[in-house]
Predict the 3D structure of the following.
Amino acid sequence: MVLGIASRVFAKIFGIAGFLLALIGGALIGYSALTVGGLSVSSMVFRGIEALLGFGAIVAGIMMYTGPMRFGGMLAVLGGIILLVLTSFATSAILVFAGGILGIIGAAVKPAWWKFWKR
C-alpha cells in the first residue's frame, strides 16, 4: 500500500520536474531563436528550425505532464539531442534533454495503467 503510493508520488514528481525543465528549455530556445539577428536565408532557416524544436519541446513537456509520459519523454529526448547538436550544447538544450530523461524515468516508475483500475 505504502509502496504503491510512493511510486505514484515519485512518478508525479518526475513528471512535473520533466515538464518544467522541458518548458523552460523550450521557452529559452524559442526566445533565443527569435531574438538573435541575422538576415541571411540560411540563418533564418536555422533559427526557424530552432524555434520549431523549442515549441516541440514545450509540447513534449505538456505531454509528459498530462498525457503519455513515456512518449513525451522520448520526444523531449529526441528534440534535446537535435538541439544539442544544433546549438553546440547550449544550456537550454541540456534542460530539454534532462527533462526528457526525467519523463522517461517517471514513466518507468509509474505503475501500469491497469493497476489504477483494479480497485
User: Anything to note?
Assistant: The CA atoms of residues 42 and 69 lie 35 Å apart. The radius of gyration is 16 Å. The mean pLDDT is 86.
